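Bumping my old thread because nobody answered last time. Still need a sequence for this structure:
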């Protein structure tokens, strides 16, 4: 793993680099150059998903980089229409990625309308048993969804990947994850860019001579979240990686904490109907 990036120990004993690179909404044209740049900059953790349609490009950039597979941490996710065909879906993703395993495989949404997320969690265990994924987790799961799978299957997800950023801090959900030993992965860590212009955040950035994106990402790291900001812009990909040569003091952390106002920028897992 890259020296600069700390790792977080998951509840199954595996390590995950705390900073990665996300590729949601990265087109098939952009994905190879974006991941190539990220790997050149030093990112060793890539977060993709079957539904992003860019697993093949992620795999191509990984192969072209010639970086040892063991140095990389790759996550992909099971889409909602495959909750009853988890092993098949995992193999399909691996075929596109050109990998024999992923480091982390997630149920992307509970999608309760399908009524299958518990069956999916059960089948995920087979994905790991077959060596197709090293760690297993969930995404967009509320406390109720997690309690439901835990009542039936005795394996605690290693991570819960949920929307978290300063204006949507999800304190209760993060505390719940922590109480179960589940690592919180914070998606849309910049609030899709929404949080960057908040005056409180700009003020903190100015005070430490960093950009708003850097102080937001640093806030995540100091809260213990795993993050993977997305960018297709080379200078931002570099900027988002330069987080390990400064720290936020308690006042700066508190000031960023103070902007939490329930500003969800993605879908609500309770009402999402897809
Ligand atoms: N599990 C889920 O349901 C779920 C949902 C959403 C996201 N995710 C994961 O989380 C990753 C990150 O979240 P996200 O893509 O939603 O949003 P994000 O990382 O919060 O924000 C991405 C946006 O911020 C811009 N940006 C990035 N760095 C910047 C910087 N330094 N300065 C100014 N603007 C900057 C990007 O622009 P440019 O690209 O134009 O530079 C892009 O428009 C995704 O890629 C995906 O892997 C998972």
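Sorry it took so long. Here it is:
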């Amino acid at each position: 793993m890259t020296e600069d990036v700390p790792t977080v120990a998951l509840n199954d004993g595996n390590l995950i680099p705390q900073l990665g690179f996300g590729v949601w909404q990265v087109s098939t044209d952009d994905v190879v150059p974006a991941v190539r740049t990220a790997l050149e900059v030093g990112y060793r953790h890539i977060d993709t998903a079957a539904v992003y349609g860019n697993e093949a490009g992620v795999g191509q950039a990984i192969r072209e980089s010639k970086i040892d597979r063991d140095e990389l941490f790759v996550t992909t996710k099971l889409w909602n229409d495959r909750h009853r065909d988890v092993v098949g879906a995992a193999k399909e993703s691996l075929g596109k990625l050109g990998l024999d395993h992923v480091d982390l495989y997630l149920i992307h949404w509970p999608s309760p309308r399908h009524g299958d997320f518990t069956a999916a969690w059960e089948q995920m265990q087979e994905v790991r048993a077959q060596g197709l994924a090293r760690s297993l987790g969930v995404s967009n799961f509320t406390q109720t969804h997690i309690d439901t799978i835990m009542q039936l299957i005795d394996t605690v997800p290693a991570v819960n990947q949920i929307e978290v950023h300063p204006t949507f801090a999800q304190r209760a959900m993060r505390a719940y994850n922590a109480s179960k030993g589940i690592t919180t992965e914070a998606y849309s860590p910049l609030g899709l860019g929404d949080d960057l212009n908040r005056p409180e955040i700009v003020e903190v950035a100015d005070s430490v001579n960093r950009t708003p994106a850097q102080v937001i990402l640093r806030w995540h790291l100091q809260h213990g979240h795993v993050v993977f900001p997305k960018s297709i812009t080379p200078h931002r990909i570099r900027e988002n990686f330069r987080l390990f040569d400064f720290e936020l003091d308690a006042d700066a952390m508190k000031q960023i904490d103070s902007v939490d106002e329930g500003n969800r920028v993605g879908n609500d897992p309770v009402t999402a109907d897809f």
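Residues 7-192+225-232 form a domain with the TIM Barrel fold (CATH 3.20.20.100). Let me know if any region looks off to you.
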